[in-house]
Design a protein that fits this description.
0% strand, 5 helices, single chain, 58% helix
């Protein structure tokens, strides 16, 4: 699916953002956790690289899955608001 080497390099470059986790086991993190931490705590370069590694559509899909009503939302309020607006404009979901 994704390029494992690119993901590994991306996680190594951004390992300081994952302060709660064992740095030697970052590759075992779920994509949900990776997206959450990069969007919450990353800078614009790490967010851009996240979109390059996982794709804008996949990142938006993960974000929306984890911000559905009725779920506990782990995104900071301003991050949730910003990326809801951003993804609705740049990676709209198909509603049926």
């Amino acid at each position: 699916m994704e390029n494992q080497e690119a993901i590994k390099a991306f996680l190594e470059k951004n390992k300081d953002l994952f302060w709660h986790f064992d740095k030697t086991k970052l590759e075992a993190l779920s994509i949900d956790v990776i997206v959450e931490y990069i969007l919450n705590y990353g800078d614009e370069n790490s967010v851009k690289e996240l979109f390059e590694v996982y794709g804008l559509g996949e990142t938006a899909s993960i974000f929306f899955k984890n911000t559905n009503e009725g779920r506990r939302i782990n995104y900071l309020p301003e991050v949730n608001n910003y990326f809801t607006l951003y993804f609705n404009r740049h990676a709209p979901r198909n509603f049926k």
